[in-house]
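Example protein was shown:

_____
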Amino acid sequence: MFDRLGRILSPERAGAFVQFIKYGVIGVLSTLVQAAVFYRLATTCLQCLGPDDFMVKHFGFTAVDVTDAVRSMRFAVATAIGFVIANVFCWLMNRFFVFKAGKFVWWKEFLFFIGVSGLAMLVATLTSSAAIRWGGLMTSLAVVVEIAVSFLFNYFLRKFFIFRG
């Protein structure tokens, strides 16, 4: 039993399917970290949830009555802060449990990891922010769009560029 658990947890001994599943689990955990930070900020110092937002209507989160331009700017800032915190967590988990480290020295690997994540976040955030600003998209739906775009982008670049597979 412990050998099987060790094989699953070890990046060197896990097969491609197990690796993808572990990546997904860590992605979910990282997303929860980012969402927790985002919604904490979105309901306190960077209020950006409109009165019609899903999280306001169904979970009683704090709403603010500001223009869509202000809401989209605050959304982007809250997203960026959540991104940094979640990506440090994600890098550590991917490094120790999903991919084989060692293609680059640790600090280069970290910088590449953050760079790839940053590019994915930038594309996803600009897309979501534009959908809020010009399409009136609900903030919580914009978060879902951002997550979907980032997940696939990050997996392939991390697997084939940053880590050793």
